[in-house]
């Protein structure tokens, strides 16, 4: 678990972070979302010990680390939001260079490099000049670079920006693999939907403040207390019956007819009550095809827009 307590950072006249408190559970894929200038990069750079906060504490498990950069550097891998300039190095040489920087003994390096190239699916590119790799490949190589010393925590600044949809799917799969390896991953983005599909937890930031954080479901449900319910039924003729029935149930509001035979409604209540609603529909012989609280980015997007009013998410 990483605990960020009362972290503030002031650059001359700019308050980049103001009293940020955040807990990142171990093993999560944690998204930092916020418009440009929200303070995401500043927070990641503090967590990577690249800059020190003006005040506050960062705890990695039982250790306070703001004054102990060597602990952070051992535990954390950081991927910045820019690729930088590559000297004339092949992918393997590039990783070898960073393995050297991390003091990994020479005899161990080749195996680590082979494993990392395999992990990020660049084995076939090991002797290719980095400069000639595609953007997605460079991105994955940078990720491999951040993993060279086998850190517990990975910090990825805007990893999805500029990636095409396929590269984004590959990145998401890679992040899941890393999570499966027990790593905690913190990623930032100013484009909410990029993260909604990748993260288990999110924190929304604006103008140096943390506005809201928690697991994706919890944050998605933040708007009102309710969740959005989507019910699809088989036969158009039963649509009105189903809508009437739903409108009479306590806890259900805003029942509307969506595309095709879809009914959408707001729902406040427990999973037990949700189960009761489904049972009532079935008891009335309404041919339910699917019954689901709406999840994913759409809802999160609404939350984001409502609490970062006036700021565009992209
Ligand atoms: N080195 C610096 N000197 C002065 N001000 C800075 C510096 N770095 C960042 N800032 C300011 O701090 C605030 C937060 O910037 P930061 O880069 O952390 O935000 P961000 O959420 O990562 O934004 P972006 O998505 O644009 O990268 C901004 O107002 C920015 O101009």
Automatic annotation (TrEMBL):
Key words of the record: ATP-binding, Nucleotide-binding, Transport
Pfam families per record: ABC_tran
MF-aspect GO terms: ATP binding; ATP hydrolysis activity
Coiled coil feature spans: none
Family: Belongs to the ABC transporter superfamily.
Stated name of the protein: ABC transporter ATP-binding protein
Residues annotated as domain ABC transporter: 2-232
PROSITE patterns (UniProt xref): ABC_TRANSPORTER_2 (PS50893)
Record carries keyword DNA damage: no
Gene3D superfamilies assigned: P-loop containing nucleotide triphosphate hydrolases (3.40.50.300)
